[in-house]
Amino acid sequence: MASNEKSPDVQLKVISAGAVKRGVARIAEAFERAAGARVTVEFATGPEVRKRIEAGEAADVIVAPPAIMDEFAKAGKIDAESRGFVGRSRMGVVIHASASKPNLSNTDAFKKVMLEASAVVHNRASSGLYAAKLLERLSLTKPLGRKVVVVDSGSAVMQYVADHPTAAVGLAQVSELMVMVDKGCAVKLAAPLPDAIQNFTSYDVAATANAPEAARALARSLASDEAKKIFAATGIS
What we know:
This protein is of the alpha/beta class and 237 residues long. It is built from ten helices and nine strands. Strands 1, 2, 3, 4, 5, 6, 7, 8 and 9 form a nine-stranded mixed β-sheet that branches.
């Protein structure tokens, strides 16, 4: 999974989408030990990753949705040969840790849960954009009205639900939920979205155009078969 060549003087900076945080962090730590390079990882939403890189922020490795990586490739910001597939994250319905799990077996059941919620929370990142379109497509936007709450990030979705235990629900990526549960946030997964309305967000990795060879080795590690086993355990398939 990691390079066999020690690079004690190399320092690498990774900017990654937050949904793959658990897997990226674990693989980066393993790479540090194996390669001897120092790896710093910073996490943000997909749109924030785009904004930071387009603004000229330096990074050696980027993990982001394919559409964003396509933009970086066209702009010459990444090494196209180093690009690889990391995995996909499913979306689910988040409820308070003390709440009873509702029926979410099909689309009609999902709509009922949304309409009965005291608040429906999603973020402004890729998963949140899908959530907003989904509510509109299911003719839920107008009936829900001000009950729809939009926050900045997946972690903020979880925190809002944790702080409103009555009947607030969140729409977020399952992998982000697992990160917050690990941190002790009082939320849990009610269920993934029903198959008919499920959404997968994919993530790619690449070294930046002028990054050192160690960055390419790290990118290969993050897209390796061994890495996929680690990501699978964190909700990324």
